[in-house]
Amino acid sequence: MAGLAATLGSGAMTNSVGEFEDCEVFLVTGSNTTEQHPLIGSRIINAVKNKGATLILVDPRKIQLSKHAKYHLSPRCGTDVAWLNGMMNVIIKEGIEDKEFIQNFTEGYEELKKAVEKYTPEYVEKITGIPAGQLAEAARAFARSKKSSILYCMGITQHTTGVDNVKSCANLAMLTGNIGKPSTGVNPLRGQNNVQGACDMGGLPNVYCGYQKVTDPKAKEKFENAWNVTGLPDNVGVTVTAVPNLAAEGKIKALYVLGENPMVSDPNIEHVRKGLESLDFLVVQDIFLTETAQLADVVLPGASYAEKDGTFTNTERRVQRIRKAVAPPGEAKQDWEIIAEISKLCGYDMSYKSAEEIFDELAFVTPSYHGMDYSRLDKDFGLHWPCPTKDHPGTPYLHKDGKFARGKGLFTGIDFKEAAELPDDEYPFTLTTGRTYFHYHTRTLTKRSSALEREVPECYVELNPEDAKKHLIRSGQNVKVTSRRGSLDAKAIVTDIVKTGTIFIPFHFAEQAVNNLTIDALDPVAKIPEYKVCAVKIGGGN
Amino acid sequence: MSSEKQILSTCIYCGCGCGFYFKVKDGRINGVVPSKNHPINKGSLCIKGWNASEFVHHPDRLTEPLIKENGKFRKASWKEALSLTVKKLKEHKEKSGPDSLAFFASAKCSNEENYLFMKLARAVFKTNNVDHCARL
Ligand code: SF4
Hints:
The complex is a heterodimer.
Chain A: H1 2-8, E1 25-29, H2 33-36, H3 38-51, E2 54-58, E3 71-73, H4 80-93, H5 99-105, E4 106-107, H6 109-116, H7 121-128, H8 132-144, E5 148-152, H9 154-157, H10 162-175, E6 186-188, H11 195-200, H12 217-227, H13 243-248, E7 254-258, H14 262-265, H15 269-277, E8 281-286, E9 298-301, E10 310-313, E11 318-322, H16 335-345, H17 355-365, H18 374-378, E12 383-384, E13 409-410, E14 429-434, H19 450-455, E15 460-463, H20 465-470, E16 478-482, E17 487-494, E18 502-506, E19 534-540
Parallel strand pairs in A: 1-2, 1-5, 2-3, 4-13, 5-6, 7-8, 8-9, 14-18, 15-17
Antiparallel strand pairs in A: 10-11, 11-12, 14-19, 15-18, 16-17, 16-19
Helix pairs in contact in A: 1-10, 4-7, 4-8, 4-10, 7-8
Chain B: E1 5-10, E2 19-25, E3 28-34, H1 47-50, E4 66-69, E5 72-75, H2 78-96, E6 101-104, H3 111-124, E7 130-131
Parallel strand pairs in B: 6-7
Antiparallel strand pairs in B: 1-2, 2-3, 4-5
Iron/sulfur cluster binds next to helix 1 of chain B.
């Protein structure tokens, strides 16, 4: 979430889920909310149906939410900066921006104004295919309400221009004064259940917990004291996506994977396999023998969430408890115990008696968690961070009264750039990937649940009826989808959910992993792979 | 036979973080009941949530450490698996430097586990090569 952190000073959802009930305008983009975040999706539908809220949906697919949208704008894939700039162009030209908010709480406005000047709705229509009139109307609707909220998910961040997309969303929110108040804001919906927590806890190469930078000498000293060690490293580490290459080059020799399955979730799987296979040592700690664990030299059996105490931080920054209900099977152990034992064997004592004791330590060194403890979290289903002191009630929405974490909110003028790989004569289709309602990420868990497996048991390819006709493909028939990197066979589903020229494949299926096809071009700042757009061709399958 | 207990927890299938109770009897979980007062889900769950406990007792669960020998896994004791892990990690750290190691934390594991894991990478192995799949 590098884009949001640079603009506002914090990369998390600015507002909380409960506030969606009172939103007047939703701008939802790159999020198939009813499938990926069902209970947020149902809140949006409720607000539209029962409270007269307006839904602006910007999505190339005719997803379920489109039935409830007053405006459904359907851009060509990978053109988000263009339509966001277009909306801001309209708002500024018509003088309906929030002048007071801009004046008091932001900087860089002139730069933004200059950057969006050429993005007239007509120009944007040429780039995105969104009719100029529709774009202008949606922009007006968004700007006129003081309870307009932007929601997005991986559809916005999984591009080479992901950081630009996020900054553009923040630009729009600040331009209309829709931030720092209830039922407004810029709200990235986090996919996996504890992505927010893993980031908060410093599961990142550049920061300790609480986003304290490893390059900051003060932070280094603080953690050396807290942990009673010397010589903490102060160079930024490497990202997940860089590891396969470094392993293949022999620069990374050993990898310890905790509860992840990069063999399915990474773009360009063959590349990842080669990388992992060239490691001298791979240890995987998980609850099933995942595709990644199968490549390991040592597999350590951990505990499922039902077998341990701990906390998760949900997409709205709510830190809440999980509790041990049953014992782990066989000799499987609590994951924290395994980590602590490894540490002890290395001569560094980690003797904790419980997860609670670890929480107390992490709260002590993490400013935004400082006021939390298990007894407080047990009341009222957790607390929203930041919660700096024991008597602080937590923070459902950030940047109250225009007080941004970085001082003033920063506008950034951003130019539209094309995606890294566009369709051409040889590979005429745009492939986009995503989730389906019934499965969770790499399916390690959900495929072991019979009710969920029954609903969507195998991979499929969504194809527009017109394209299907042209290529003589019927629903249910096998098709072969090929990119410059690989190919897969799957059943075709002919549906007008997807536009002509576009193909959708869900990414949960290891057996036919779509990430064999996708491109590993990365956003230069956030290093997010471009899952959402790549060029492919289709043909009859086996 | 003991009587059924209900234990409050949090769903793991998406970032909404709905609250539910595990129904526990004789050391086994028999489904979940949504929490009525939870601010996110207020008594309801989606289909994934209703099925969020089914995998817990799945026969494919890993129940003992494994070590690969000649391309095949064999069962191992904790002592053996952990000392091999530590030996290898230490060896590479000493021979090729701390940054020849990498650690993938997890968006599925708890805050406590992620904190400890990055502490292990940084304080013990002295590398910032820690990341997780939030990008994914
Ligand atoms: S019940 Fe459904 S909406 Fe709620 S956290 Fe689980 S998967 Fe998400």
